[in-house]
Design a protein that fits this description.
The structure holds 2 protein chains of 2 kinds.
Chain A lengths: L9 E4 L4 E5 L4 E6 L2 E5 L1 H9 L6 H12 L4 H13 L3 E4 L2
Antiparallel strand pairs in A: 1-5, 2-3, 3-4
Chain B lengths: L2 H5 L3 E5 L26 H14 L3 E5 L9 H10 L3 E6 L6 H9 L4 E5 L5 H8 L4 H13 L4 E7 L7 H10 L4 E6 L4 H5 L1 H4 L3 H17 L5 E5 L19 E4 L5 E2 L19 H7 L1 H4 L17 H4 L4 H8 L15 H11 L31
Parallel strand pairs in B: 1-2, 1-8, 2-3, 3-4, 4-5, 5-6, 6-7
Antiparallel strand pairs in B: 8-9
Classes of the chains: A alpha+beta, B alpha/beta.
Chain lengths: 93, 378
């Protein structure tokens, strides 16, 4: 296990976590065993792109275009945090 | 009043039945167990889940007793899953046959928690009251095989805490994703059996050292969660994240509670057969009783920690002092702390019961007057 998030890695949500819109609180949440994590809009956008196909680089490029700013550090830090909890799995071949 | 109250509950613990093939001396069920004939029907549970979803509940935990004893478990899991909830089964694993497990998976069950009493059959079966160890191990393997995340729940006490290293070997062998090593909480049955269950300081120090090392060793593979016994703490726990704040419990007969043990308190009942869950959560005297900090007596009222531990546990205050409004006696600032100190002193008396031997008092176990044989799988 490594804590780094390579730009060539392909992140995907772990099999046992789910994301959904929480209508009562009007926000996107991540649900796992004994866990409810509130996602900010950027976090929700990052996770929506973690499909196991796109690379970290693809996600950075896509969100950079969408927000019209550099998001490298934000994306890497966010994925690092989720990968350390095993909520996101990153494959890098 | 904090914002969390307005936020509504995140999770509902559905105690589907008090019937259970096991009879553990630290059982969290009430001393008066609900008869099977008084249990909520399938339709009633469905309505409860619907109302919970309206309140903003995101996770449903199916528990008991043994939830697998309910014939409609698959149906209820499917219903909660259909409402978008993260569904969790809390089970002894007795009755988790392959067909039943597959049906639960197909219904959308997200996560399974299996209780483990010890690391080997003799002690495990003695603590559980029936031969169950091999079935638990088999069921834990099945959970992994079917692709679920596996949590092992271990309640620690004087009789098994010295076996923690060997229990953690099982955690590793079974490739559990999480393990909760939770020291016994002394309510209900466990309080009656406290003398036989409360570990010594030496036992605890050993367990904490072993679990800390395991947390490092298993990092990235298994989350090791160790819950300290609050009798050995200086300050009380912020029970349930605050009364009526984040979680709610619904018992087999439809009584709703802010926590697992609140049925022991002299408060008016709130039943889902008489009121809907949103009313119970927002307006019932029961759920309003200890919200926020206004109810607090001193020393809590003027304490800097009042927002940290929220006055501790109301059930513990009631059980130890007879007054649910008092500061949790676990707190070193509580005038009642001597009640906890006496129990701790007794647990550390060399003349006290040996770690895994008989005790002076007979150990009481919950034995429902109900058929507990698991229903046929399907």
């Amino acid at each position: 296990m490594t804590d780094t998030v390579p730009r060539t890695g392909r992140p995907a949500l772990a099999r046992f976590v789910k994301t959904r819109y929480d209508k009562a609180r009007e926000r996107q949440v991540l649900l796992g065993p004994e866990t409810v994590v509130t996602l900010n809009p950027t976090g929700a956008d990052i996770l929506a792109l973690c499909d196991g196909q796109r690379t970290v680089g693809d996600i950075v490029d896509e969100l950079g275009r969408r927000y019209d700013r550099v998001v490298d550090d934000e994306v890497i830090a966010f994925l690092e945090r989720l990968a350390s909890r095993r909520w996101v799995v990153i494959t890098d071949e | 009043m904090s914002e969390q109250v307005l936020d509504g509950p995140l999770g509902v613990l559905a105690e589907l039945t008090h019937a259970c093939p096991l009879s553990c001396s630290y059982c969290s069920n009430p001393l008066e167990l609900t008869k099977r004939s008084a249990e909520l029907s399938t339709d009633e549970w469905r309505r409860v889940l619907d109302e919970a979803a309206v309140l903003g509940v995101l996770q449903s935990h199916f528990s008991g007793g043994e939830p697998l004893l309910r014939r409609d478990l698959v149906d209820l899991v499917g219903h909660a899953s259909g409402l978008g909830m993260y569904t969790n089964l809390v089970t002894s694993a007795i009755g988790l046959s392959r067909p039943r497990a597959e049906a639960l998976r197909d219904a959308g069950l997200d996560h399974v928690q299996v209780s483990i009493q010890a690391d080997e059959p003799v002690l495990s079966d003695r603590l559980a009251g029936i031969s169950s160890f091999e079935k638990k191990i088999e069921a834990a393997r099945l959970v992994k095989e079917l692709g679920w995340p596996l949590t092992l729940n271990v309640v620690l006490h004087r009789q098994n805490i010295d076996r923690i290293a060997a229990i953690l070997d099982w955690v590793e062998e079974l490739e559990a994703d999480r393990v909760e090593l939770a020291n016994t909480q002394y309510y209900g049955w466990a309080l009656r059996n406290r003398e036989a269950l409360l570990p010594s300081r030496e036992q605890l120090e050993h367990a904490e050292t072993v679990s800390r090392a395991a947390r490092e060793r298993l990092r990235g593979r298994t989350d090791v969660i160790y819950v300290i016994p609050d009798y050995y703490s200086r300050y009380p726990k912020p029970c349930m994240g605050g009364w009526g704040s984040r979680q709610l419990v619904v018992g087999p007969e439809g009584n709703a509670w802010p926590c697992l043990s609140a049925h022991e308190l002299p408060l008016p009942r709130a039943n889902v057969r008489e009121h809907d869950l949103p009313w119970i959560w927002r307006s019932s005297p029961l759920f309003s009783a200890f919200r926020g900090t206004d109810w607090m007596p001193d020393p809590c009222r003027s304490c800097d920690r009042r927002e940290v531990d929220l006055g501790g546990c109301r059930c513990q205050a009631f059980q130890l002092t007879g007054d649910m409004n008092r500061t949790d006696p676990v707190c070193v600032l509580s005038p009642d702390r001597y009640l906890v100190d006496e129990a701790v002193a007794a647990a550390n008396d060399p003349a006290a019961a040996p770690a895994a031997g008989s005790t002076r008092e007979p150990v009481l176990v919950p034995m429902p007057e109900v058929a507990v044989r698991p229903h046929r799988a399907d």
